[in-house]
Amino acid sequence: MAAEAHAANAAHAPSAGEYIQHHLQHLQMNFSFEGASQHSIIDFSLFNLDSLVFSLLLGVVGCLVLWSAARRATSGTPGRFQALVEMLYEMVDNQAKPLIRNAKSRKLVAPLALVVFVWIFLMNAMDMLPVDLIPSLWHSAGPSLGFKDYMRVVPTADLSTTLGLSTSVLLICLIYNIKIKGLGGWAHELVCAPFGTSKNPVFAVLLGLVNFLMQMIEFAAKTVSHGMRLFGNMFAGELVFMLIALMGGVWAWQFNPATGAFWLGLGHVVAGTVWTLFHIMVITLQAFIFMMLTLIYVGQAHDAH
What we know:
Shape: globular
Oligomer: single chain
Strand order of the largest sheet: 1-2
Largest sheet: 2 strands, antiparallel
């Protein structure tokens, strides 16, 4: 009887590919608006609702944490929480000073970089939760609310999130290019850097086109690489956690001391612990790198060529 129950459970258990494929699916919504004609439909393409919701929630949490620290700050001996936030602020401010020499700009950019660091760290830290914890809860609640049971909880493992963040950094850089250099000065830089110009009108036009093309390539490369770096590292980390979870799943679904599946369960615990400890460094480092690149790119927007 026990053998039959074991066989039934094993038969209904998903394969490794099905398990990973299911966990890589996003909760999505599709909005479309019909025009005057029944045949004219403006389709706003699918967006990942889970990434959007978790990003907003963690952004609010990060802002509340920083606001709470600022509200409770005292001039006397700081508590542990205040000391931690002060250390983070000093770390960001020390990194910003040599990169952004304009003190007025630094008053805005340094706190912004601190928010970026805390926000991305919190989004990365969602990878530390057990793989099936939130998805299993959503599996019972989602369909009853009219949603599919897909749920991914790491926003930075979604390319749309990381590219959205890097595009926001690009917009900030464009704003500071115009603010610091003026619209005319920045337009002049677009056609005169990096190869300069020429007194010959024909060569001046050709160099202007080449310079403009190089500037556009530079902006695009910075934005794409900025987002792809964070996405690639977090997506790889998420996959490793899924593979480790599969080891525990095989132990749970096919438990039989004679087959050696017990060692998969032990390996699940050991590998999960080791990778989690290592991943603490990864999520912190990735948040720091994204913050530093933000400061570097905004600092470059202040430099004249």
